[in-house]
Amino acid sequence: MVLAAVGVWELGHGSWIHAKARLAQYLLQHAWERALRGEAAAKPWPWADTWPVARLRVPAHGVDLIVLAGVSGRTLAFGPGHAPESVTPGARGIAIMTAHRDTHFRFLERVRRGDEILVDAPGHVLARFRVQEIAVVDSRSAVIRTESHAPALILMTCYPFDALVSGGPLRYAVTARAADEQGPRSAGASRDIRQSGSITSEETRF
Fold it and tell me: How many domains does the chain have?
């Protein structure tokens, strides 16, 4: 009976997480509409400590999500988060977004090179990206070089997708570049995602 009770509790807890994530997106849609009308930091509910900063769409996988400011645990419970130390999505430089592997970013395991990603941000024109790189990295040593001369986007989540316990060190990172900036990089160009034991002011740790 104890094992059955624990199983029911775990099932209910998992179902609640998914239900909360879905409900939040409806509330966030309304906040997003207010943001598009010019409202600054449009909170989706009065006590929220985050607000919509972008809309993320991946047509090939039926994805349409509102991205929130920040990457705290509270924020990621309701939707993808935008790392504040990265650039505004669509601006020149690298924008970083992250979300849970079992809710909003579950679709990343189906993403393939060449997939189109669309990003809307208030005050910016629609940004179109194409997936260029997919990598599994170790959060204990991986860094992102945030300097860039063209718009780029990194979507990141925990890995592996079917892990029974969350919180491991591995991250699944999808790098997309502006659709009009595709093409081979020069031999001297560095990767956006690399392994390193140090950080400079132009790098961000996972």
Answer: 1
- Per residue in 5-33, pLDDT (tens digit) is 545 445 555 566 666 667 777 889 999 99
Q: What is the CATH number of the domain that holds 114?
A: 2.40.260.10
Owning domain of residue 97: 2-205
Spatial separation of the C-alpha atoms in residues 152 and 87, rounded to whole Å: 9
Distance from C-alpha of 42 to C-alpha of 92, rounded to nearest angstrom: 24
The answer to whether residues 60 and 131 touch, using CB atoms and an 8 Å cutoff, is no
DSSP secondary structure string for all residues of 158-201: ES-TT-SSS--SEEEEEEEEEGGG-SPPPTTPPPSEEE-S---T
Would you state the structure tokens that stand for residue 84, as one six-digit string? 């504040």
- Tell the burial category of 14 from Cβ atoms under 10 Å away from its Cβ (0-12, 13-18, 19+): exposed
Q: How confident is the model at residue 115 (pLDDT cuts 50, 70, 90)?
A: very high
